[in-house]
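Thread: zinc ion complex, take 2
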Amino acid sequence: MRTLIRHGTVVNADGPRRADVLIDGERIAAIGTSLPAEADRVIDATNRVVLPGGVDVHTHLDMPLGDIRTADDFESGTIAAACGGTTTVIDYATQTKGGSLRGALDTWMALAEGRAVVDFGFHMCISDLRPDVEAEMDAMVSEGVPSFKLFMAYPGRLMLNDGEIFRVLRRTAANGGLVCLHAENGDVIDVLVREALAAGHTAPRFHALTRPPLVEAEAVHRGIAFAELAGAPLYIVHLSSAEALGEVSAARRRGVRVLAETCPQYLLLSDEAYEGDQFDGAKFVMSPPLRSRETPDALWRGLAEGDLQVVATDHCPFLLGQKARGRDDFSRIPNGAPGIEPRLSLLYDEGVRGGRIPVERFVEITAAAPARIFGLYPQKGAIAVGSDADLVVFDPSGTTTISAATHHMRVDYNPYEGRTLGGAVETVVARGDIIVDRGRFVGAPGRGRFLKRAPFRPRSS
Ligand SMILES: [Zn+2]
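Output below.
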């Protein structure tokens, strides 16, 4: 099957150019201005931009949390991703206490295989660092799971202590792995939460007040120091505050190999969402929490200047009925919010149309950089001959209106409800298959494949 995408503006991380793209089977076969028009299918991309399929490297699909799970499984979650122009997801598999990394990988593989509609990979979250688990990390790297999530928060459940974090970093320095760090000081947060509840402060806004920016900045600083000591690279997940960004920027200026991701919610929303004592704020209870109104400007600057490299979603959807568990105690509200679907539209509207970043930087932070950092480039994240034919035909003059009534995520609210964005995902091609046709999902559940990723390689440039 040969598909020709004609008359569009192809955008890679190095800039836009007018070109046609010829797809042969699952791969891109040719890119140019005068390609022979012999193809089984032709997609007219006149007045459209043609983007590499989005790469979302932070999702939680079908994730257990106590006796509940996130609302999207790998089928509904990746359908939503596809409809939003994302053709690759990397989800977090989590080791259980007493369990092995292998066991966690098998569990998550069984959740994804036969359901995912786009290609997927896994990071491995380490919650119980026994000596045998440390040794198992090497096998994970060689089997295509070369990134490890560690928590500095959630003591007693997921948090590792400083020595354990240092040990994992040293291991990755040797085996080519990359640590993805959730940087918030869990012990300090626990003190603040206990004090707030004892004082009768139970509303959602106290979630944010008990996780101030400094508990994030302190943890980022500590994580960077450990990485520097261990001689290992470090990737900070869901960086949310100007204070934490300051730590990353300072370290990068010193030449430390620290990379950082932020999320659309920190670029577009603020802690005004928690105002009042109404329970509506529970929709926005996530960790780290939403920050001040000034924060988005600082984070956009970080993205424009290069101190932030990636925007991923931290898609972690819970139904309002599940959020309601914390009606009388904010600390019992399941943490997380949906976001896998509108990532590209939100960032295009606010970032590119809003004049904050050029379109090639948009491609870099949503596709090229995440693919490169997580060992998928140039198979993913680029429109190049030989790359997987993962492409988005995007209409910059179209509009996208966000609503829980029309989104594909299996969750009963949307943090961006009612927003109308400039730009629309029109057609999405994944490994040569048209899976979204003029806005309508037409793909097959289970067509997504597991991606064996390469170890982390720092760029020389
Ligand atoms: Zn997360």
